């Protein structure tokens, strides 16, 4: 649970301190006022990065040369952690926990699990495989420090291998021993990443199907399938088999960096056949299943950040969704909405403990 948050020169906030409800927190205001920025600050404190993927230099308030975030977390036993993230222009980001600098982010990420549902989640279905791999990586990195370390190792080796292939092409030469030195190191981290992704999908799919049924009213059946080159062939065999193609294309054409998820609805590919309403329900089910999986694995309730998800929903559907979140005990929830009257009328009848925050031009009134 996040009990308080302090933002200094973060995005459009000069200085703001918020004290939260342990159950439900609603931030309302017009678009562009800074509601999403609060959720992004929480995301940053948990995962050491912006949900929007922005570089740290772009998170500073206009005209400022640093930003600082401070959050006070409290677990089920009442133990408190003060987490600070700070960045100064031209320097590296620093993360602190209870006054001590965090050395390795792999040991920090996952301590405060979080799931964010945002409008751009539509990319999970409609864009390429990179977004779906990111979904896998963000989930598994919060569960397993070993996964994150192996992923970083594999990606670093992949980058070296692709750079070497480009160099060979540019210089019109080929050194098999240089390439082999990299190829020998890649299969171990690749296999670990593959195995953990495969295992995750096996546990994730029934959660996804169950939550879609709850959200949609049992109208359709959904499924998700894991696609990977390594399902049939180990990486060392792939690298050898694809060598000539890799040299020609100047990039590595097989491996877990090509993994993907295929989403199905009633036997049809979701990307091609889902309506807008079905698509929104699928995205919600994906994220809430991600939340349930994290809660089970971590034995604690993640923070749930809901950014503008009620857009284009009538009040009845908003009420149904909020009721689902509260009755399934989704822990501490943060919601943004442009219409205070809409969200307040819904939560007042469903949630006993909640707080409303009005956001206007980087200033917040509780």
Features:
alpha/beta; Rossmann fold; globular
Task: Walk me through the structure.
The protein is α/β, with parallel strands linked by helices. The chain has a domain at 1-113 and 300-366: 3-Layer(aba) Sandwich (Rossmann fold). The protein is built from twelve helices and 15 strands. It has a six-stranded antiparallel β-sheet, with helices on one face. A six-stranded mixed β-sheet has the order 8-12-13-3-14-15, with helices on both faces. A hairpin with a 2-residue loop joins β6 (94-97) and β7. α4 packs antiparallel against α5 (176-183).
Describe the secondary structure blueprint for this structure.
Blueprint: E1 2-10, E2 13-19, E3 24-28, H1 35-47, E4 66-74, E5 80-88, E6 94-97, E7 100-101, E8 114-117, H2 123-126, H3 129-143, H4 145-171, H5 176-183, H6 187-216, E9 222-227, H7 235-241, H8 243-249, E10 260-265, E11 268-269, H9 270-273, H10 276-298, E12 303-307, H11 315-327, E13 333-337, H12 340-350, E14 354-360, E15 363-365
Parallel strand pairs: 3-13, 3-14, 8-12, 12-13
Antiparallel strand pairs: 1-2, 1-4, 4-5, 5-6, 6-7, 9-10, 10-11, 14-15
């Amino acid at each position: 649970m996040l009990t308080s948050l302090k933002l200094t020169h973060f995005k459009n906030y000069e200085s703001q301190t918020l004290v939260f409800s342990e159950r439900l927190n609603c931030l309302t205001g017009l678009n562009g006022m800074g509601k999403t920025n609060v959720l992004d600050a929480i995301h940053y404190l948990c995962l050491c990065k912006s949900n929007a993927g922005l570089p740290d230099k772009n998170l500073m308030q206009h005209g400022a040369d640093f930003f600082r975030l401070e959050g006070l977390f409290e677990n089920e036993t009442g133990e408190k952690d003060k987490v600070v993230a700070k960045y100064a222009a031209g320097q590296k980001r620093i993360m602190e926990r209870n006054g001590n600098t965090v050395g390795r982010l792999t040991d920090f990420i996952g301590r405060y699990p979080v799931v964010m549902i945002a409008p751009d989640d539509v990319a999970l279905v409609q864009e390429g495989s990179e977004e779906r791999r990111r979904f896998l990586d963000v989930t598994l990195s919060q569960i397993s420090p070993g996964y994150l370390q192996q992923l970083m190792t594999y990606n670093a080796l992949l980058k070296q291998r692709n750079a070497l292939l480009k160099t060979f092409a540019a210089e019109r030469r080929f050194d098999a021993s240089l390439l082999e030195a990299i190829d020998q190191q890649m299969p171990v981290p690749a296999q670990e990443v593959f195995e953990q992704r495969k295992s995750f999908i096996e546990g994730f799919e029934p959660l996804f199907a169950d939550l879609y049924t709850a959200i949609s009213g049992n109208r359709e059946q959904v499924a998700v399938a894991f696609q990977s080159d390594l399902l049939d062939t180990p990486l060392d065999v792939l690298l050898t088999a694809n060598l000539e193609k890799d040299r020609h294309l100047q990039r590595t054409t097989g491996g877990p960096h090509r993994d993907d998820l295929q989403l199905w609805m009633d036997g049809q590919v979701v990307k091609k056949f889902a309506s807008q309403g079905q698509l929104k329900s699928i995205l919600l089910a994906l994220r809430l299943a991600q939340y349930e999986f994290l809660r089970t694995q971590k034995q604690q309730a993640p923070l749930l950040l809901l950014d503008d998800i009620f857009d284009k929903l009538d009040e009845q559907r908003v009420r149904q969704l909020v009721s689902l979140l509260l009755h399934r005990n989704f822990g501490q929830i943060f919601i943004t909405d442009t219409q205070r009257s809409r969200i307040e009328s819904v939560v007042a009848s469903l949630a006993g403990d909640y707080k409303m925050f009005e956001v206007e031009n980087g200033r917040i009134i509780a």
